Amino acid sequence: MDRACSFGIGEEYLLVDLASRRVLAKPSQAVTKRCRQVLGRYYAEEMFCSQIEVASPVFGSLFEARNFLNDTRQQLNESLSEEGVGLYCAGSHPTAAWRRQKARTTVHYRQLFDDYQHVARRSLLNGLHVHIGVPPGCDRMQLINRLLYWLPLLLALSTSSPLWSGQVTGYSSYRRVICGEWPHMGLPEPLPDWSAYLRYRALLQRTGALAEEGDFWWAIRPSRRFPTVELRICDACPALEDAVCVAGVFRHLVEHCLLAQHVAAPLNRELRWVTQENYWRALRYGRSAQFIGIHDQQPVTALAWLAQLQAMYPVETIDAERSFQHAQGILREGTSADHQLTCLHQATEHGASAAQALHAVVDLVLAQGRAAPGPAGPLAIRQGSPTMAAPSASH
C-alpha cells in the first residue's frame, strides 16, 4: 500500500446509574464535570444530557487507536464509578425511558428537537463513527460510491441494539430502524461526483430543506469539517476490539478504493438495489443474514461475504490482517446483539424475572465496556468475552 490513511474514531456513550441500571435522566454537575476533566478537548456533547461522545485525535495505526480508547474508557469508568455511574456503549439501552430524557439546550440541539419533534426525542442511541483521511483532490462522492456496497457488512459486524423499551425487537440493529425515521440518514443519495453533491446541497439550502450550516447524516458522508469520509452506519460496540476491528476494515477498504480513483465509480441502479436489500438484511438479521454477494449476485453468508471483500482487496498490512481476523471471529461467535439476546434468554431460563433479565444485559454491556485488551491479541480477547472524529449531530 503506497499510503496508509490517517483516521479518527468517535464513540458515543450513555451514562447509566450502576444501582438501578437506568439511563440517567439528567446527570449531576459532578458527573458532567468528571467527564469533561477526563476527556478534555476530546469531550463532545450529544443530543441528550445523559449522553456524551469521545471524539478522538488523529491516529496513524490501530495500536494508537486501541491505546487511546482503552485509556479513555478506563479513566472514565474509574472516575464515574465514584459517582455510581457507568458507561453504556451499545447501540441502544434495553430499558431506556426516552420520554424522561432531557435534551441539550444549546441552540443547535434546540433546533434539532424543534424540527424533528418525536423522532428526535426517541433517538436515544449510540453510534460508532469512523473518519478516514483522504488526499487532496480526491472526489469524495466518487469514493463513497465505491465504498457503498460494503457498508451493510460493516453494520453486520457492529450490531448491538436488539432491545428497545424492554422488548426484543426482532432486529439486530434497531438503532438503524429509528435512524430511518430521520431525513438524510439512510444511504447517501446516488450522486455521481462532487459537483453533483454541491448542486444537491445548494438545492436543499435554497428551498429551505437544509440549513446553511446544516449537514447530512448519511450512513457514510463526506465530512464538512475535515478532509475525510465518515462511516456512520455502525452501532456502538461494547467490546473495544470490535470497534477497532470495524475501523480497521473500513480503513483498509478506503485505502484500496483510493487506488481506483482513475476508474469510474460503480453508480448504477442495480448495485444500489442490491445494497439497499443487504442493508435491510443486516439491520434485521445481522450476521445471520443471507446476503447478496459481489459475484453474480449469488447468496452468501456474512463470513463468505467478508472473504469476498478480502479477496477483492487483499490484506497487505498487519493492521488489516488483524482486523480481518477479528472480523471473522465476530461473524463466527456473534456480535453484541447476539450476546445480549443470549444473556437475556439464559437469565430467563435460570428463573430471572423480565426486569432481572434485562438488568443482566445491562451488566454484560457495562462489563464489556470496562474490559481492557489483553496481551494475546484481538481474537483471544473476543473469545474471552460472552481527531478527525467530529462531534455528531445525530446517530
Describe this structure in words.
There is one protein chain. The relative contact order is 0.18. It contains 14 helices and eleven strands. The longest helix is centred in the first third of the chain and has 20 residues, at 62-81. The chain has helices at residues 29-39, 62-81, 107-122, 140-147, 151-158, 174-179, 194-206, 240-258, 269-285, 302-312, 318-333, 336-349, 354-370, 378-383, and strands at residues 7-17, 43-45, 51-55, 85-88, 128-133, 163-164, 167-168, 220-222, 228-231, 291-292, 299-300. It has 395 residues and is α+β, with helices and mostly antiparallel strands. Strands 1, 2, 3, 4, 5, 8 and 9 form a seven-stranded antiparallel sheet that branches. Strands 6-7 form a two-stranded antiparallel sheet.
Task: Write the topology of this structure.
Elements: E1 7-17, H1 29-39, E2 43-45, E3 51-55, H2 62-81, E4 85-88, H3 107-122, E5 128-133, H4 140-147, H5 151-158, E6 163-164, E7 167-168, H6 174-179, H7 194-206, E8 220-222, E9 228-231, H8 240-258, H9 269-285, E10 291-292, E11 299-300, H10 302-312, H11 318-333, H12 336-349, H13 354-370, H14 378-383
